[in-house]
Specification:
GO terms for molecular function: DNA binding; sigma factor activity. By secondary structure, the chain is mainly α. The protein has 2 domains: about 140 residues, Orthogonal Bundle (Rna Polymerase Sigma Factor, Chain: A); about 80 residues, Arc Repressor Mutant, subunit A. It is about 60% helix and about 0% strand. Helix 2 packs antiparallel against helix 3. The longest helix has 24 residues. It is elongated, with a radius of gyration of 19 Å.
Amino acid sequence: MDLIGYRGKSSTESASGGCPRQPRIIDNATDDYDLALVKRIRAQEEDWEMAFEQLVMKYQHSVLNTIYRYIGNYNEAEDIAQNVFIKVWHKIKTFKKKAKFSTWLYRIVVNQCLDYQRKKKKEGTVSLDDKLSEEKIPESLTVELDSEQKKKSAIIKQAINELPANQRIALILSKYENKSYQEIADIMGISLGAVAALISRAKESLKTKLIPLREKGII
């Protein structure tokens, strides 16, 4: 999936049309790495487009996976992920250093997911989960599952998808993206207590739905 393609020619392609230049990759494990890239982009320093490309390379899979888990449709998740990085491209000068870049990025992800859901509700579109068996899924989420495991996974996923939007987002960020409660609070713009309450209610709701199925041996 090329999330840079909307800019036309890749920034790794030389201006003379010669051999592609490879982005300079450095240790990307720290917040300082993100801030250094953002600084280069905002100041439009030399190779600033490469800096943006490196941010995309670092986050594109986790962003896509989060969106896919929320909406359950790979093709539309790709489109939303593309929109996320377009917004990052246009809004990066509004990023404030007091926040982590990943927090700022995931606020955009969450808002795009909620916008998608509002649009679908307005259109009267039913859940897309029925199409999952026909859709490809992100490679990073693909594992070898037998038919029984697939059935269980589908039931659990459906139960998650039936949660209220805020509960679903909080649970996905916590369970699948390993975000701390503080990070989720910052991303969603709510208090720590509200995050804890959302995740607690989500887990309780899932337990209520899934325990009877487990007792019947369905999952």
